[in-house]
Structures are given as C-alpha cells and as structure tokens.
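Hello Y.,

Per our agreement to keep a running log of every chain we model this quarter, I'm adding this entry. I've kept the format consistent with earlier entries: sequence first, then predicted structure.
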Amino acid sequence: MKRLTGIPASPGATLGKAFRLEENRSAVEKKHLSSERAEREKERFKAAVNKAAEQIGAIIKKLQDDGLENEAGIIEGQMMLLDDPQLSDDVFRQIEAESVNAEWAVSETFRNYAAMFEQMDDDYLRERANDIADVKQRVLGFLSGESASPLAGLTEPSVVVAHDLTPSVTSQLDKKLVLGFATATGSKTSHTSILARTMGIPAVVACNELLSNVKHGTELFLDGDEGVIMIEPDDVLRSLYEEKRKATVKEAEKNEEIRGVKAVTTDGTHIELAANIGRPSDAAYVHEHGGESVGLFRSEFLFMDRSSMPNEEEQFAAYRETAEKLDGKPMIVRTLDIGGDKSLDYLSIPHEMNPFLGWRAIRYCLAEKDTFRTQLRALLRAGVYGPISIMFPMISGLDELLAAKDQLLLAMRELDERGVEYRKDMKVGIMIEIPSAALTADLLAPHVDFFSIGTNDLIQYTIAVDRMNEKVSYLYNPNHLAVLRLIRMVCEAAEKHGKWVGMCGELAGDPAFTETLIGLGVTELSMSPAQIPKVKRVLLGLSAQAAKQKALSSLGCPAPVFR
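Predicted structure for the entry above:
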C-alpha cells in the first residue's frame, strides 16, 4: 500500500480500479503549402470549428436537459471562445503569413493564447488556459478526423486517472461509471474542479507522483476531502471507506429531511440562511439545498471568461434570469468586485505592489463611472422581475458610500430620461470588510438598509496577515478577539438604527462558528449552497439568548459597546 497526496478538489471518498486516460501527445507537423492550398486550409479550419461548435452545443443541451445548468454555463465559455472573431483572424493570419497547414496554425495560435493566460497573476484566469487547450484539442480532432471521446473505453465503474481532464470531458462524466478522478495537474479553482464539486464526484488534483505510480487497473482509495490517494488499500482502509460511505448517505438523508424547515433557534429566533452564487444557473442549487435567499450574487463572474465588457442588455438579461429562477426569493447583488486576486485582462488594470490594498472593487467603479452606472442601470431594470438589492463592496468610509449612492441616483435619472421601467425602491447595502468601515458603522448605518460582513478580507486586514502566505497563514484566526469585537460593533450599530446584519464570507458557512455569529448579532448567513443544511442543523439546536450571553462574555465586555 502506497500513499500519494495532492490537492483536495472535490469532497467524498471512493474505492475502485483505475481507468488510466492516456494523454494524446502526438506532435502537430508543420507543412508548408502553396498559397492556393493555404486558402483551402482556411476552409478546413472553418469546417472543423463548425463541427466543434456543434459538438459543444450538443454537450450544453444534454447538461441543460439533465438540469445541470451550472455545468452548461462553464462549457458555454468554450463556445464563446470558438465564436471569438479575433481568434479565427489570428489562425487565418498564421496560415497566410507562412502558407502552413491548418493544424499547425491552430496549434500555434491556441498555444499563444494559453501562454498569455498562464502568465496572469490571478488563479482563476490562469486556469482558463485549460479551457483553451480543451477547445484546441477538439478542433484538432476534427481536422484529423479523430473526434471520439477519450472515455469511450470506460465500461465499468472506475476511478479515472489522467495528466489532466478538460472541462468538456469532465462535464460528460457518467456518475454511474466514474467513481472519482485524480489528475497530475490542476487546482481548486479550475473549471474541472468546479465541475467535479457541482456534480458530486470526488476528486484529487495536482498529484505529482500519480502517473509514475498508478497503472491501468490498479485498485485505488481516493479521498477528496483530504487530498489523499492510497494504492492497493488494505482491509483496514476498506473498512474505513465503508464507514465513511455510510456516513455520507446518512448525512444526505438528514439534509433532505430538513430542506423545507425554517432555520429557527430553540427560543424562536429566525436566522435567514442564504446562498452565495455567481451565475443564473446557480439558482437551482439555492432551491435544492433549502436556501431562503441569495445573500451574495458575485456579479464579477458575468465579466469573466470574456474578451470584452458585458453591455447593459447582457447584464440585465443575466440578473433578470436569476431573479426569475429564484421564483420570488430575495437576491443581493454585489456590484463589480475586481482587483486584488480577481483581474480582468480586457480592463488593463495596472500591476500593483499591494493589489489587495489598491485599485479594486468600489474604488475602481467610482473611477470608471460609466462602467459602474451601466451595471447599476441593469440591476435597477432587473429589479422589476424580483426582489433584488444592491450591495457595494470594499467601502472604507462615508464619503465612498455617498459617492456610490450618487451614482445610483444618476443611473435612475438616466433610466427616467429613457422612459425605462425600473425598481424605484431598490434596497442598498454595503460589505463590511475593511476595519475602518466596522469602526464607523454607526455613521454608515443611517445611509444603508443592511450590512453584510465579508470575513475573508476583514480578518486579514484586521490582523495584517496574508492568508495565502504559508509562513504567516497560521495567524489567520477568525476567533481573534479584535475580529469578534469588530463584528459585534457592526451588529450594535445596525441594531441602534433598525438595520440588519448578514455575513457572506467563508465563516458564515462554517458550523463551528454558527453559535458565535448568532451570539454576536448576525441575523443572516450566506454561504455555498451545499453548506446550508449543515449550518441549519446546528441552528435548530441553538438557543439565541444563550449564544448571545456566551459571545458577549467571550469578548471581555458584557455590556454592549454603544450603551
């Protein structure tokens, strides 16, 4: 028995024989052709693109028919790549400039595109190189006449082992045959990992020793929670796997039992459990896991996987679609939050020494007011189709908040001038993720309808620790007294002015912190949809009054700060 480690990409454990997916490493040959033949190569390329688009379209339709809208949305990004006229023009130029075959032109052009993404600082965008490689192989397959699925030989339940899996291959995995998968490369932010988590397929990625140790047919134990792969597991490990499998089945049954139950504490306090989502198709997971609302719609996802800014109509359509799919459930949309660890290549945001402290989120939007008001107009219009609220990120003080609200008023006037219908009573909130906002929450509260605490940034800004830096990440402590006091301070300021406080950071979905957060005064928790049942089970057994007494005692200040 041998132990391999990688990155845990999708939770769950499984046991089965390895189906080794060999990578197609055949080199593309460069052929010099006559100018007349080169023109014919353009037609070959067009035909291959059309066939690839037809195949991707069929994959998208199947995913949609199976109710997997989120997965379909990821593959739609590849369709957009095929439709990009700039990419086709670059392939044509390559064919014309060197009078070469279409295969070579495709290989070189796509390689250059992938290299551009691989050099980006942002993990999410860097992983898009994998999508480009996926499309490239599909087009090359049609050019060579070899377009069969690489999983065609998979006929019995197995653990798929590969150098990497492309998103389109992952989206077609049959859960009856694919028990889990392991790859030698990849990351948690790749589309492949996102798809695995959405589809509920256990996965481990970035396992460097995988291919040199695992042969076709080797029996494997794969643990997607821990990022561990055991080769030829012994009887003890088999027993542990069986126990874990039974526990997973029981948990799913318990989750289903409480899906329609409201999250109310033992002493009658209702805590709204909401979901964090990023695309219209994610609305299905809010219903599936019993979410009461959407506490955070990450609107920046609509701006990603594109070569240009989405216009007002495109944004309006996405917000409207989400609101309609939520069927009356409230939704809070965070305005464009880019910068820091999220960049958009087409916006040409300059490199900064300290991007987390730089030109990002509301700071960018207040500098690029046309872009900001385009989004605000789209949101105001979509508000006619459902209870949508707007939330401004990265607010550091009153001046920024008032400036953002001024832009909202201007957006309303612009819609009035156009005679366009919109929601005139749009609720407005802000994210509390900078200590200065928490410390002045009493001044901000009269100007908003709600606060939502973003703990990911609030914690690292308060303790001055980069959670991605392994040398200091041990200091990233959600239980730090300073963090807890800031959360309580925000809740007290909100209570004083009759406003409510939610939380949409990672802490909101951690059952271990549920009692503390309720005790501090948070009344809405927004999290990954799959976490909702876990937090709800904790809430149903809590006393809100007891939680408050415990939390205030732990702060070392039994009396509220503002009294």
